[in-house]
Structures are given as C-alpha cells and as structure tokens.
Amino acid sequence: QVQLQESGPGLVKPSETLSLTCAVSGYSISNGYYGGWIRQPPGKGLEWIGSIYHSGSTYYNPSLRSRVTISVDTSKNQFSLKLTSVTAADTAVYYCARDTGITLGGTIDYWGQGALVTVSS
Amino acid sequence: QTVVTQEPSLTVSPGGTVTLTCASSTGAVTSDYYPNWFQQKPGQAPRALIYSTSNKQSWTPARFSGSLLGGKAALTLSGVQPEDEADYYCLLHYGGAQPHLVFGGGTKLTVL
Question: What is residue A76's predicted lDDT score, i.e. its pLDDT?
C-alpha cells in the first residue's frame, strides 16, 4: 500500500536551515505524481508549502517561495524539503504527501504521519 | 495574498445533516479550483475525503458529499455519526503564472 514517511531533525536553531526527507513506498514517484509538503503549527490550521513533479518542476507557496527548496531523487523514490532562515514561527508538524496534480484529479490523497520540527536555540 | 474562508465551528446532532462551506477571496469558487476536503482528528494526519468538487476517495463514507453552492465549495454530511467530530479543511487550486494551493482555515465540527 502507499506509504510516506518523513525523517529529519526534530530541533533546528533559529536562522538555520530545516531539512526533511520523505521516503515513499507503494508507488513510484516517476509514475506521474507530485510530492507535496504541508505544515501545521501547533493548534493551528494547515499550510501548503509546495510540491514537486518527478521531472523536477516545482511550485511553491508564494509567501514561502524565497526560503523553500523542494527536490526529488527518483532513484531513491524520495523527495526533500529545505527551509532556510527559520524562526520560531516555522515550528510545526511537517507532512509530506502525494499530490496527484490536476491532470490526475487534483487531490492530495496519501499523507505521511507528520514530523514535529521545533525551532529553538 | 489569497485567503480561503471556512466557518470556524459548527455543531450538529447525531443523525442530522450539516453543510460546511469554503469561500475564496478572489471570487466565486468553481470546478476550476478543484476543491478538496480533508478530515483531521486530534493527533492524526489529515485524511482526504473529496477531490475535484464532488469526487470521493475510495475510503470516503457515502454520507459525505461535495458540491458547489452559492459561489462556494461545500461539504455536506448526511446522517452524521459521532465519529465525524473532527476538523475539516478545504483546499483550492489557484492557477496563473505562479500556480499554488491554499487551505482554508478549517471548521471544527462538534457532534452533540
């Protein structure tokens, strides 16, 4: 079955770079799907960060674009998130998910369990 | 900055019917926004329910349905069950030169 699993440091210092990886199983990233990142600050709502196609095409949240990079490694069937210059406001549970893109229905159908990242010195 | 607005909270009785809505600051929501709906229970990841306005995921119970209503996307729960108590989020797709997705602020549904 389709599974996604986030991994990476749970604690990042202010001004440093947050890095997370999403390992995918149950389907091949190369089969026309996007990989997406979504975050949720404690007690708050969901915020879409960005998505990447297997070809490397990306689209990002305009409010985060200057600090976000999403990359893909099809050989490892995984995709990654980097968020630079973090502050306490970036403390959140970070989810990776499968984004089908609008050509395949426009849904985010499978989600990882989420990884809590705290920004603190 | 695009804003997607949902009711902050709604209450429904078991067995009742409730409709949640999702509005866009850019104007009327149409099928071109590929509206999605997600359910999230405490401590869990969101679960996809509805995509492209009204299409159900394979695991979505029949009592959930999606539509367009008065310029908004809508999620209707008919015959509400206690286990439907959760937060519900809509998601809209925005095209143009810089395509992006925006979640609504969420609706906390209480079954009482």
Answer: 94
